[in-house]
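Annotated sample (chain length 230).
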Amino acid sequence: MRKEGSRFIVIEGLIGVGKTSLCRLLEERRNAELVLEPADDNPFLAHFYSDPERFAFPAQMFYLASRSQQQNNLRQNRLFTNLLVADYIFEKDRLFAEQTLKGSEIELYDTFSSLLGQTISVPDFVLFLDAPTEVVMNRINRRGINAEQQIEASYLNELRNRYYQLWADYSKAPVYVLDTTSINYIDDPADQEKILAIIDGWLNGEPHPEAPRAYQPESPNQLTLDFGAL
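Output written by the structure step:
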């Protein structure tokens, strides 16, 4: 049975895995209001990819401030919309900080993060989209965003590991993991219907029979979804 009131879900994943495309699909087909991370607005991002040691701190602090502002607005927006969909979870910010900041930088980051994160909204669930690193790298190359062409496979592998460490400790809401390797919800109407049916099931409190179960650290492989079975 569908729960009453505003719903808030998060679509997470590595760069290029398809999270923003899924958010756009939910906007179009489920009239969702989107909260998209301000990647295109970060003036330090391109410099960070080419010289991470020099530009990590300003890039990370820009994200922290921007995400905090968005999250504060989100709390107000929940009063006026039935479904809010974000393409990031606030806690991810520290994943990147851990990977790029050092010493006094991470200490200063943590000081501001603890202050800004006190009133963050908790999602109904998190859907983490994953795919093998070579698949993600091919997608990054195909979409041709200049700032992303400096990303290395080792960076994606380390980031993925940090995500799974986050999910292992995250208890605020259910986390579901979905392998997007063979899913084409950008162009294939059948795949669009399938992914929407899965999400609708979680939102309605009636999980689809083929939906991934909530993440369990000891057996992550159980959480991928074989769309060929639907």
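Annotation: Residues 220-230 have pLDDT under 50 and may be disordered.
Annotation: Residues 162 and 227 are 27 Å apart (CA to CA).
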